[in-house]
UniProtKB/TrEMBL annotation:
This is Zinc finger CHC2-type domain-containing protein. Residues 33-84 form the Zinc finger CHC2-type domain. GO terms for biological process: DNA replication, synthesis of primer. Keywords: Metal-binding, Zinc, Zinc-finger. The keyword Nucleotide-binding does not apply. SUPFAM superfamilies: Zinc beta-ribbon. InterPro entries: DNA_primase_Znf_CHC2, DnaG_primase, Znf_CHC2. One of its GO terms (cellular component) is cytoplasm.
Amino acid sequence: MNCRNANKISIVEFLKREGMRIAKENERDSWFLSPFRSESTPSFKVDKTKNLFYDFGEGIGGNLIDFVMIYKKWDLRKTLNELSKGSFSFNQHKPKQPTKKAAKYTIKEVRSISSPALIAYLEERAINLDFAQQFCTQVHYQFTSEKTYFGLGFKNDVGGYELRNRYFKGCLGSKSTTTITQDSSTLSMFESWSDFLSYLTLKKQIPHEDFIVLNSTFLASKCVNKLNGYEKVKTFFDNDEAGYRATLLLQSKSTCAFRDLRKHYSDFNDLNDFLLHKRIG
């Protein structure tokens, strides 16, 4: 099987074969709970017309081959070989006349964190509220319905927001890293806003360092050139395969003193998990 034929296989059909169920659907799109993380609100969209996927939480998308290589962690040869074994229907999506797209979301208000529910959420994660107030906001937003939602917003470098509350994990706008500079020769890097704020909470201060929050390990490769000019780079990524790959990539490209600090919380999933257990202990 070649790439052209493989990408004619319906992504929706492939996901169903993998045991995933459609959470909601309209004429153009099918929505699933993301296969890359646990969530209760579907943020993984398949455009049935173009046969393309997009995961709003991870900020990644592409065709079927792209998805299978990421999801299965296979190389291209194995992906094509395995797809050729399946009795998939070659759903050749015929382009339809494009309809005018409505905005996927509308941000209604951005303000300081004041919601008791969001404050309680931060407390549950043992994150210092003062630090959260400095780097996060309370974002009120709408999707296609009239209902307004709100969550903690962590702004990225292109104006998008990482959105979190007890029930939702996603991104409004374009996915990107978040860079915070203090004219330092040391750069500390984190996977997520919660790990970054956990670091500040553990330190009980904002160290004189520059910070980059990936917001997704898929963006680690975008940060390689940003390492230039630093005397020291410290990484605080998750103790999983994605965290390992991101660490290895940046370490291999770094020309300065590089410190992988996962050893300090090697028994825990990530820095926030370490902070939570430290509080309980």
